[in-house]
Amino acid sequence: MLTAILAISVAAPTPAEAKPGGRPVHDRISTPITADPGTAPGRQVATLPLGDATRAQLRAQRTLKAKLKVSARVEVGSAATFKTKGSKATRGLRSIKLSFGDGAKTRGHKLTLTRKHSYAKPGIYLAKLVVKDQTGKKAVAKKNVQVVDRAAPPNGFGALPPDPAQDVAANPDAAPGAGAGSPASVDLRGSTVPVQNQGQVNSCVSWTTAYAMMGWYYRQKYGQSAAFAPMYVYSQTYKGLDAYGNPNGSYATDALNVLKTQGVDTASHYGAGWAMTWNVQPNASQRANAANYRISGSDTIFRYSGSLGGATVGTTATDIEALKQRLASNNPVAIAFRVRTDFAGYNTGWYNGSGALTGGLHEMLAVGYDATGLYIQNSWGTGHGVSGYVYMTWAAVQRDLYEAMFAHGLVTSGGGGGGDAVKPTITSFSKQFGVGYIANNAQAPMTFTWGGTDNVGVTKYVLYYRTGASDWYELAIADNATSATYNLAFNNSYEFAVAAYDAAGNLSNWALSGLFTPANYQESVASYTAGWTAYDSANYMNGRLYETGTANAYMQVQVTATNFGLVSTKGSGAGRAYVYLDGAYQFTIDAYDASTSYRHVVAWMNFGSSSTHTIRVVNEGTSGRPYFDIDSILLS
Question: Residue 550 sits in which domain range?
């Protein structure tokens, strides 16, 4: 009996808009994504993602600009300096207004202003400059001013308030589907190095990144502890001096950039000043040895600096989930938070942060979590906290933790790999509908598989995705992962990209999936021989499926697509079916399971590129379990 064939063509819809408030996880120079030869012929260069250099170029083209420079850190009663040099209004200036963040304001009619202002109380104050031109348009610049108490703290802080323009929100991991989410608990303390004391030097950022984080990666990779010199990084990254000639502090972005571009020297090679000598920069020998201990890169999970003086900093449940997922991927996380008056005396149990804000900002290393809160290694010695660790409740985290960053891992150590300039190659990158996973009316599982090679060896893969033409976002995967499955929404356009690092930090070209759109088609679009019956239930995709218990009864459909997937019911009465592609046998499906369950992806095919094919599924009529269902046809 001949069967009529119905053609299905998948047309890509208009790319979905970026999520409101969505920001890329990167905040550094953009990384070009290009396909390896033969991976995606004719594709244009994509950019992952929009980096600071590109943003600076776009800003330079504007004719109206507000620029504000302020003292990053001052004491209570001391004057902070505010300068507006660099502001522009090519169509004529109407007004310029500067708000200091404590209710005080000043105005002017010249683009270049210099003002001094002192604060009565400690805290983080958000200064705001508004420049308005003769057309009525305005430009705004915001800067944080850190005001600390005159009394010296028992230990230094050292995290400086970031520029609000650099704020980053964690990308919701629900798109693509979050699956089961993060584990209930993670503990990375098994690879931490001994807690040290930074003293009163405001060097917490360097102790967190150069000492604690680098030490963790070294011990985790090589099984032995190594002490690295935080002053190697701090001597190059601190920002100015206070009224007493002491350094104000530094930014995690700067510290991580030094660890990527230069590395960090070991404490034993650096010498006596490794822990406290901040005013002597590394010599040639120290720089040469530092090149053996580098990270391959870093990223921002989230950053909120615009509300550092508020009741909460703005961290959301989505940000906390992203932080958990990064820890679950075996990456300790450098975190920055607002210091309260009760933090110095904390020495037992869980810290909930009930004191008043001091104006201080502090960097530490998150190394795990459980249902109560976050496990954190501090740099205030073993006499503070619980043997040098801070156990911070989730309530305190959401209220005061405003920044989270992580490194991609250690490049090499001990002199190995320094001369390797050969970058890895991605040898394969494919996608298929995820067999063994469950679909529903809104989404279907898609499995991505990749592989790579290198003259020495691939040490890490990185996986990114975007919806439509929006920004790229990194997905948390294990360094050695070669596959991952995500629930993708129907009728949304996606693109995935994978690349590899080697031990020397060389990055491969990017392999691209190309833009694709998952789609769900009701089983009725196919043609059926005699012996099939339609059944309706909310358990089925689209509310209906077709079932047969007749041997050799078949379904046939013509599709135009790159990927094909078949959804069916599994159960004790379900048997086998044979799958043919363009008349040639391909494989056998077995839908048996001891218990009944619905909407299983039971088969997939990847055609390599969009093309037209005829697919036939023939029921075997298996003895004792003769039934087979056609619930839905998936295409992309």
Answer: 519-635
